[in-house]
Amino acid sequence: MALGASLARGKCQHFLAQVLASSGRVLNLDETRTFKRPCRLQIVARVGKRPPLRRGKVSPCRPVPEHIPRPPYVGSPTIPEISRDYQMHDSKGIYRMRAACALAAQVLDYSGTLVKSSITTDDIDEAVHQMIISAGAYPSPLGYGGFPKSVCTSVNECMFHGIPDSRKLQSGDIINIDVAVYLDGYHGDTSKTFLCGDVSDEMKRLVKVTEECLERGIAVCKDGATFKQIGQTIREHAEKHSFEVERFIGHGVGTVLHSQPLIFYPCNEDPPSLGCMLEGQTFTIG
């Protein structure tokens, strides 16, 4: 048995029990422009050196070769409904899921090497796009409910699902890069927050504690464990370090990008329908 987990570090790790976890997010496009993390905003306010994030210009969508298979939602401006089905896989499905997660992790690692002052998030999108299609995969965000880019880049107070644009990164920024790929019928979904240049100690602490929360959440995943243990573990570690946890959710992932179970982190009690993890399930923690 093996548990494949795409961690905040962007690596595919393998543990015991055949539940797969990878770091990911779900939010609609309008919410991504305004939804912010309280603890991060408090830190920015204390530092007081950076102006508010301003949206840059968004370049046209990048083309994908015709021979690369598309997810079913491509071509529709409507955000797909969250699938009610828990995604369970046989050995063949697990093999393909690992391959998709491994590619996503490789792309994420590469994107992190590009983070530096003066590069734009659109430059990162171009590099990610080219690496994904060169591997014969499709960038999952592109065309998801009309999303115009191949990767999500969320800078500073933009929490996640940020749209790459012409804004240049500046020393002191933090940027979350969220990579998802569609390979051989399966989605691999992972992300990591990177530091750009001279980042404040408070920002470094925020990123460090967030990564620790993710690793602790992944550590409780095994056949028979309850989903609510993930949220409890993450919340306890965050509060220990004086951070608050917003209503982040984990979600099922596999042949469908977003599905049940939806995992709400701050809640002690999960809806009864969530139940326990089962061997062969795949889901994200983000």
From TrEMBL:
GO MF assignments: initiator methionyl aminopeptidase activity; metal ion binding; metalloaminopeptidase activity
Keywords per UniProt: Aminopeptidase, Hydrolase, Metal-binding, Protease
Transmembrane intervals: none
Peptidase M24 domain sequence ranges: 96-285
Entry annotated with the keyword Acetylation: no
Matching Pfam families: Peptidase_M24 (PF00557)
One GO-annotated biological process of the protein: proteolysis
Protease in keyword set: yes
Catalyses which reaction(s): Release of N-terminal amino acids, preferentially methionine, from peptides and arylamides
Enzyme Commission number: 3.4.11.18
Entry's family note: Belongs to the peptidase M24A family.
Function comment: Cotranslationally removes the N-terminal methionine from nascent proteins. The N-terminal methionine is often cleaved when the second residue in the primary sequence is small and uncharged (Met-Ala-, Cys, Gly, Pro, Ser, Thr, or Val).
Descriptive protein name: Methionine aminopeptidase
Species annotation: Momordica charantia (Bitter gourd)
